[in-house]
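Quick entry between incubations.
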Amino acid sequence: MTWLGKTLRAAGLMLLTGALLGGATGCANLGVKPWERDLLAEPGMEIDPDVVITALDEHIYFSKEASTGGLGTAGGGCGCN
Amino acid sequence: MRSAIIGACGMLGLGGATAEATEVKTAILGYTEPDRVTAIEAIVDGQHAFDNGKIFNFRLVYDALTGASATGAAPSSLAQTFTRPSGEGSYRVAPGETPLDDTFRDTRMALSAGLTMPLNRVTNFSFGLYGSGEYDYVSLGANTALTRDFNQKNTTVALRGAFFSDSISPEGGRPVPFTAMPDEGIEKAQLSGDGSKTVMDLGVGLTQVLNRSTVVHLNYTYSDVNDYQTDPFKMLSVVDPVTGDPRGADAYLYENRPDARTKHVLFGRVAKHLGRDIVHLSYRYFTDNWGIDSHTFDLTYRWNFGGGKYLKPHLRYSDQGAADFHRSFLVDGEALPEHASADYRLGDMQALTYGLTHGRIVGDGHELTVRLEYYVQSGDSHPAEAIGVLQNYDLFPTVDALIFQVGYTFDLME
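Done. Structure below.
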């Protein structure tokens, strides 16, 4: 793994750990009231705002790399080359 | 390949409307690698929300692929001749060239459908079915999910499960692992029957609204894959320990992968509204018992211009470590490992994607999108273990691709 990969790995794990700790300890105190959801309801704020692009990209990356999945259950395979 | 993305989105009480509505998203994508694979893929993804809260979704995907695919054999200072997978015919690779089988051609049709139903005000249950078929590969699957909202719908927890059963009946049969590629017209040693594989996925997800402009999503997926996972078209060169050229006889052996694979995937994404624009940042950590691990970052920035127009730059970087059994070649005279594959996709690699999507509202609230992206993948071109002439050749040629997509989203029922 390259130095860039190691740096990104450390940054990613810190991001994930922070998010997990934040999520685990603060869920009950986080969030908004129902009338404060104006920005959250805008197009593009969904966790997966482009399900079609996600599906097409996952097929590409599944075919070209050995790592798959993440956003949902990754499933099985295809005869992709 | 399919992604049964279940219930992760739209569970945060962002909508709340109970009127019936149908939304259909369509797209056609072109993918082209210079001198290698070209693909066209079309997708129709629909969702109908009933007034009783149930949601029906379906997806139809068609893709056609053609071109040349790396066989796994190493380049040589000599011209090399390979028997086609069918056993009928052969092709010749010039000295110094990466061996590519240029007869790769396939079409695939995939269909999935599912239903999400509310069990009560804060709990949803969903299930779905999946099926896909191509010339030599069939996959059937089912998935289910249970989601529950907490904390005034600011927190959503999802439990997901999926099961798939795949079968492969490749052209020319499934070669016995580590047997030699026969000459043209001679039948290869074959495993009996079709190959089969099962996949079981289990996942847990957490989606949390942090504040008025920020949502965080975390996902963990465990995946257990069993039975035939060898690529029947891939092989390894057995090279002379001094010259690095293929040995005189039985120089190409069919690959052999383990029958069991356990994967763990940790995924995190933050969606942040910046007042006008929206940014999504994701990180994925992948690891499996084949020794592969990877770190993948993904960043999109939706630059809103008003009137439904936007530009969305996209950047993705992935750094993957090789499978324990990945070999660029085997060496004549050395004992065969238990498993080995020269498939570059199982090797050390870095992959970069960058591109741009433009979206705009057209007509009666319909959305038109155009996307152009570039994908490039590189690895260790000159590994330290290269022998003789192999030190002169690029053992991991850069793979790059252009991706072009046009999408159209519309409502059938207002």
